[in-house]
Amino acid sequence: MAAALLQGIWRYRGFILGSVQREFQSKYRNSLFGAAWTVLNPLAMIVVYTVIFSQVMGSRLAGAAATQTYAYSIYLCAGTLTWALFAEITGRSQSVFLENANLIKKLQFPRICLPIIVVLNAGVNFVIIFGLFTVFLLATGNFPGWTFVGLLPLLLIEILFAIGLGMILGVLNVFFRDVGQFFTILLQFWFWFTPIVYPLTTLPESVRGWLVFNPMAALMHAYQTILLHGQWPDWASLWPITLLGLACCALGLRLFRKRAGEMVDEL
């Protein structure tokens, strides 16, 4: 089954890549600044967060990082940029089948191509934004060195979890439209329950214990450990989100294969 799935994806690789290119171009077709908005929007958010929170939170960062000039900016970017990737994949995936209803009804192609297109589009945006952040690290002398390569397995774990969760939400949202609305609200609470804007040390001990139930907390901490401290993360702490991501992907594919025919009727 997996081999047939991969063959179908490879056979329609032109459709996938063409869709990614068309979406990127259409997003900025009539825009004066074009693709520059991909950089300006998150950059504006980071500047606002940094200006507002740097004086309050910067001194509360643990260890020597608290004394670095750009410590809080790096801490903030490590979390917000990678969280944005997760939010875009899950947010787009939960509505991908609804948004492409006409395409699904009119054309015969592997429907699994649609979540892959979502991941690739989000990946293009992330590469542009994170590339700018990497230039900032190099320019300010804060590049973490060889530990930077540790970001690759972290990104794979995040994408695995995001696309698995997104596929589950996408299938359920076809039959129960409230799912998408609920997840949009949940994602906002989830963001603030994850130590991204604030350091973990600012939370009371009684609250920190609850973070064990937040799979994204360990992942965000791993990003921050690499980018802020230049150290390898605690890989053992990432097993829960890795296993959860695999489980979500398996459940998402199962739901997708089982309900694919019914989805067409619902759309």
From TrEMBL:
The lineage's top-level taxon is Bacteria
Spell out the GO cellular component terms annotated for this protein, sorted alphabetically and separated by semicolons: plasma membrane
- Keywords tagged on the record: Cell membrane, Membrane, Polysaccharide transport, Sugar transport, Transmembrane, Transmembrane helix, Transport
Q: Which InterPro entries match?
A: ABC2_TM (IPR013525), ABC2_TM_bact-type (IPR047817)
Q: Signal peptide span per the entry? A: none
Entry similarity comment: Belongs to the ABC-2 integral membrane protein family.
| Name of the featured protein | Transport permease protein
State the organism of origin: Duganella margarita
